[in-house]
Design brief:
The complex is a heterodimer of chains A (371) and B (296). Chain A has 371 residues and is of the alpha+beta class. Chain A has helices spanning 42-50, 92-102, 107-120, 136-148, 166-183, 194-200, 218-223, 228-233, 268-273; strands spanning 4-13, 16-26, 31-35, 57-62, 65-66, 77-80, 154-158, 186-191, 203-208, 211-216, 240-249, 252-257, 260-264, 279-284, 290-292, 300-312, 316-323, 326-333, 344-350, 355-358. Chain A has nine helices and 20 strands. In chain A, the strands form four sheets. Chain A has a six-stranded mixed sheet, sandwiched between helices. A five-stranded antiparallel sheet of chain A has the order 13-12-11-14-20. Chain A has a five-stranded antiparallel sheet with strand order 15-19-16-17-18, with no helix packed on it. Chain A is elongated and about 80 Å long. With 296 residues, chain B is mainly α. Chain B contains 14 helices and no strands. Chain B has helices at residues 2-9, 18-53, 57-62, 78-85, 87-120, 126-136, 141-154, 161-185, 189-197, 202-213, 215-231, 234-239, 246-257, 261-290. In chain B, helix 11 (215-231) runs antiparallel to helix 14. The chains are: A alpha+beta (371), B mainly alpha (296).
Chain lengths: 371, 296
């Protein structure tokens, strides 16, 4: 077991920069999730750690050892592939034993470790089967088993759940977590699914276009997204992001655009102007909106809107609305009362749940709280 | 999801009655009849050779084999017994077996290693090298016969088994490398990377992963090569004199004795049967290998 460090690591393919000066410190035993849309460089970052891609610039360390020029076999890492990459001509037993045989581990030791892994992963009955005789979930477990018998310094997982159906995915997600907690092995896990990232990671590193956007615990990313990309990527349904101007409209302070207005407590705009431009991006999560009676309230922003569509989800309703030209989504509790299409409503948003970003730099500017 | 669940719960089974089955069989009957006729027509020369090989020399002299086709009482295995007493033919058969084995194993081993490198090891000029190998496919054997003949004379390889093996190997390699490289390149990249992370050296990767997975292609290649080498007349004729393989040996018998059919017929039939056995034994792989890469 060991820590893993990316020190200003870049990967440059002929014309494009796939990974741009990535720096990460992954603690011993930590479960780090690399998440981002496809093509964001997360898989390339993982493959550089595995030794399957050359490192163009920077340094990767496993423990204290710089591994830039170390062959994959010598890095003491095990990888789980999206396609599982099981050896089709070998039985489950041989698949699990292959890595150990390569390391010339004594036969009895191989047998002991393979049987132990098979037991942990509930593969005992399947040990003599070939991969094509296994279901998707079983293959996935063999792929995990192949990683754990090695007892490596780190597990690298490249979208290991993407080929499973939705139900099995949720189940396996929990199994991988349990396994990782039991073994305490440093794990780098790549996924494009923010739900997987949120539920599994000790910390999450969000990447976009080869650049690390933010790294933090799931809670940090959810409550304090550093920029517009992270704000929009983390959370489901996605955060409402609306370009607005900070303005004083007669006596009211508003963030507004094309018939859409967020009415904010008095004095906030002037304080905001002290530290940010007036062209902003307002962000607020659907689940933080509530129905209000239309009266201004302390510490709350108000948004008048018209209901378009209501998706009933049992204990809550997903409400699609528009305010002027702006489309919004709100996730409202059923107890707040059912709303109907074309109904005029006022939405209330606690100020601490409002995010403001500089529209130019897309960086968060924070929200000044009223005195 | 919902529709999938419903489909699974109520599998649609179409029961077929007897009448449609018979109708369908009748519909196909003309095609089958034609195929059987073509097959029988194709077998006539081989059948003729086989029947002739079972006749005594005097019967052979009386007329065509078809006169004896319906008279199994005239058939005898005497010719085969005499053939195995004929040292010239037995030696030629054994020699051909050695050449065939050598000229099949050697090119496949070399080609598999080369194909692995061309498919999976990155080195400068790799693709150009592969193109050059493919280009060699265009060199006709006939063009090389005379230069190789003089080369073999100088290096004492003329009329030797190693000489014939080497020639066959050299001319088998381009196609073998071409076929195997394309087959190996079809092995999923993840699999190779998994094996590398699992600590497999290139040699282990080759023998434990690539070779087992490439078996269908290798088997079909082996069949091609066995058939070609065993049946070869030209190369054996040009590059050997006293130690010729079976095909040129039989051809020379024909010249020496005129129509000594009682010797030639069993030997020809016997030499044709061996590749047939090889083909039948590996036919499953043969078909798989021919389809290699086309239906991935």
């Amino acid at each position: 077991m060991a820590s893993v460090t990316y020190d200003r690591v870049s990967k440059i393919f002929e014309e494009t920069t796939a990974v741009d000066e990535l720096s990460l410190d992954i603690g011993d035993g930590e479960f780090l999730v690399l998440v981002g849309p496809s093509g964001c460089g997360k898989s390339t970052a993982l493959r550089m750690l595995a030794g399957l891609e050359d490192i163009s610039e920077g340094e990767i360390r496993i423990g204290d050892r710089v591994v830039n020029n170390v062959a994959p076999a010598e890095r003491d890492v095990a990888m789980v592939f999206q396609s599982y990459a099981l050896y089709p001509h070998m039985s489950v037993y041989d698949n699990l034993a292959f890595g150990l045989r390569n390391q010339k581990v004594p036969k009895e030791e191989i047998d002991r470790r393979v049987r132990q892994a098979a037991e942990i992963l509930d593969l005992g009955q399947l040990i003599k089967r070939k991969p094509k005789q296994l279901s998707g979930g079983q293959r996935q477990r063999v792929a995990l088993g192949r990683a754990i018998v090695r007892e490596p310094a780190a597990f690298l997982m490249d979208e290991p759940l993407s080929n499973l159906d939705a139900k099995l995915r949720v189940q396996t997600r929990a199994e991988i977590l349990k396994l990782q907690q039991r073994l305490g092995t440093t794990t780098v896990y790549v996924t494009h699914d923010q739900v997987e990232a949120m539920t599994m990671g000790d910390r999450i590193a969000v990447m976009n276009a080869g650049v690390l956007q933010q790294i933090g615990t799931p809670e940090e990313l959810y409550t304090n997204p550093r920029n517009v990309f992270v704000a929009g990527f983390i959370g489901s349904p996605a955060m409402n992001l609306v370009p607005v101007e900070a303005a004083t409209d007669g006596e009211r302070d508003v963030l507004r655009q094309d018939g859409f207005a967020v009415e904010v407590p008095e004095g906030m705009i002037s304080r905001l102007r002290e530290r940010a431009p007036s062209t902003l991006m307002a962000g607020f999560r659907p689940e933080h909106l509530h129905l209000s009676n239309g009266e201004p309230a302390n510490q709350q922003a108000r948004i008048p809107a018209v209901v378009d569509v209501v998706e009933y989800l049992g204990d809550e309703q997903l409400v699609h609305l528009h305010a002027g030209e702006v489309n919004l989504v709100a996730k409202l509790d059923i107890d707040e009362g059912r709303v109907k299409p074309e109904e005029n409503v006022h939405l209330a948003l606690p100020l601490e749940k409002l995010h403001l970003f500089d529209r130019e730099t897309e960086e968060s500017v924070g929200v000044p709280t009223p005195a | 999801m919902a529709t999938a669940a419903i489909d699974r719960a109520q599998p649609v089974v179409i029961e077929e009655g007897l009448a449609p089955k018979i109708l369908r069989a009748l519909g196909r009957a003309p095609v089958h009849l034609v195929l059987i006729l073509i097959g029988l027509f194709w077998l006539i020369p081989t059948t003729g050779l086989f029947v002739t090989s079972l006749l005594t020399a005097s019967d052979q002299a009386q007329g065509g084999w078809w006169n004896f086709f319906a008279k199994p009482s005239t058939w005898t295995f005497e010719n085969y017994r005499r053939m195995f007493d004929n040292e010239g033919i037995v030696d030629a058969l054994l020699r051909t077996a050695q050449i065939t084995i050598g000229a099949t194993v050697l090119p496949i081993l070399v080609a598999a290693l080369a194909a692995y490198a061309l498919a999976w090891i990155e080195f400068p000029g790799r693709d150009w090298l592969f193109l050059a190998v493919v280009g060699l496919l265009l060199v006709p054997i006939q063009m090389a016969l005379i230069p190789i003949f003089s080369l073999y004379n100088r290096f004492n390889l003329f009329d030797t088994i190693p000489g014939l093996i080497l020639f066959h190997t050299a001319f088998a390699l381009p196609f073998a490398i071409f076929l195997l490289r394309n087959f190996f390149a079809g092995i999923p990249k993840d699999l190779m990377e998994a094996a590398r992370i699992d600590g497999a050296s290139e040699i282990r990767l080759f023998f434990k992963v690539v070779l087992p997975l490439g078996l269908p292609a290798i088997a079909s290649l082996a069949i091609f090569q066995v058939l070609f080498v065993w049946n070869d007349l030209l190369i054996g004729l040009v590059l050997a004199q006293n130690n010729q393989p079976i095909a040129p040996h039989l051809a020379s018998q024909l010249r020496q004795f005129g129509s000594n059919l009682d010797v030639l017929a069993p030997a020809s039939f016997f030499s044709a049967v061996i590749p047939l056995i090889v083909f039948a034994a590996f036919q499953r792989y043969f078909v798989q290998g021919l389809l290699a890469g086309s239906v991935k």
